[in-house]
Specification:
By secondary structure, this protein is of the alpha+beta class. It has helices at about 10-20, 25-30, 35-70, 75-90, 120-125, 130-140, 160-170, 200-260, 265-280, 300, 305-320, 360-400, 405-415, 435-445, 470-485, 500-515, 525-535, 540-560, 565-570, 575-585, 590-600, 610-630, and strands spanning about 95-100, 110-115, 125, 145, 170-180, 185-190, 280-285, 290-295, 325-330, 330-340, 345-350, 425-430, 450-455, 460-465, 490, 520-525. Helix 4 runs antiparallel to helix 8.
Amino acid sequence: MPSPSAPLDAEAARLLVAAVTGTSPEAVERVGGLPGAEGFLPAVQAARREVEGLRRRENELSALFSSARELAGVRDTDAVLRRLVERAHEMLGSDVTYLSDLDPITGALRVRATYGAVTAAFRELVVPPGRGLVGAIVETGAPLAVSRYDDYASDRHEPVVDDAVDAEGIVSMLGVPLRTETAVLGVLFVAMRQERAFSPDQIALLSALADHASVVLQTAGTLRSLQRSEEEARAALEQLSSHLVERDRANTVHQQLVSAVLGGGGFTRIAETLADTLGRAVRIVDERGDQRAAVGDTDGLSRDDAGAALAAAAETSRGSGHAEPIASPSGQRVVAALAAGTRSFGAVHIEAGAFELGAVDLRTVERAAQVGALLALSEEAVAESQQRQHLDLVADIVRDATERRGDVAARLRRLGLDLDTLDRLLLVVVPGDRRLDALRLLTRRIGASGLVGDIDGTLVVLADGARTQPDAAATRRAVGDLVGASVIVVEGPRTGAIGKRYDLARRALRIVGALGIADGAVTTDELLPYAAVLDADQAALQGFLDAAIGPVRAYDAERGTELLATLRAFVRHGGSPTRAARALVFHPNTILQRLERLDRVLGEGWRADERLFRLSLAVRLDELREQLGSR
């Protein structure tokens, strides 16, 4: 019988090779039948196990190389992770294989890819931080295997996790971390539905696949970071481009605003510059909301429903110094106050446009508002300088100094006015603290068609009637609305020398004051007869009225009669009882009876010429006082 060291024949050698390589399943049995097989059979079996191990290792390496090639072309992260889970499932022969990734914010682990799981609860499982087997692996950063999950540390168990594991029938589990140099990204698991112990080779193989999965997650994270960086860079570039466009618009506006102010273009030029640059309608208003300039369709800015919002935004802008955006159905509106120190000169209103105004655009509007405020101050300074000249000129005109007539005429010609055409004269009395405001208002209303002055606290308006119609009642309303107080306006005669017309108007104004009228509008013609014959002292005039008709007023008040009405009708109708009765719709006998009572009240002889004249004057003045007081 041959020994192990004896030479083998060809047939024995073939059987040994087949037994070792496993190419023939019956080769080992046949080798066992060779003479002296008991001496070399253990070596054959050991060699065969080694060959099988090498072959298995070759398959594992081949699978790892295939996985590595897939990593090089990572496009769909989830697809690559699913393929890695499938390979782990095939190579380790597990029942369930899955991968959980770690949420860096909450610390929870969410199942991301599975193979072999049959329940939705397991495929959607989220494990809270520090719970379950997966929590221990994340904390230690090392692989962990359990032959029986039920026997694993009780303090790690979580009802939701246990229910999902039980539903899948899982008994044994092996998990390995997906690591970077500094952190754990997730865990790769294989699980069995029967009890099993995992070998070091299996742990090493699963760890190698976990490393691949880690590369996938890191690459995906890097790609996300690169994408975010790209998006941020693109957004920054767009913002920079927008900023440059806004800056260019701002520079254009700045240059044009400077040109507008230096060139004397006024508020219209400012509005045109903003409208052209920002591509939207612009309206500039004064402190009362009256329009200074407008460009484009500003109907949306002048509607009543927008007035309160615009006024509130202008007040806010005045306090902050910034342009205030206003949201509206038509888009973004902007308001910027024209303010200098504590003074307000109005606001710039910007209508909605095709694009939303950026920060630089808002600064541009603010700059335009500042330029507008400076322009308003400049115009006001010029207007005040001109007003001082006008004050002196009005004083020289009404005083009618012979030696200054030539100079007055020359100064009027420079203003485009003619002394002979200034046929409208108004005297306006306002409270002293509001006189300057009223002076500015009247100057704007009259414009280049006349002059406004201030003589002894009374505002004097001289105007060309062919170019403007300064109506007394309308002037009283406008000035009263502005100053919020009582206003007296007296319209002087329209013919004659201005000096004489002014004197008559002053006398009429004194009569109004003497009558105690504090608010109203009256013409000199209405008061001229009384101004010519009466002293305009209030006490003296009141004494005259009391002496003349006081007894009649007292009689009526005491007895509830209407003797004063009868006396007025009698005087108004030339002392005729018949005409007075007809005017009062009374029987003549009734008027005669009342006249007899007037004889007793006023005394005999009151119908004589001199006394009747005085009574007539007193009655008409009393009626005039009532009429003026009711206007």
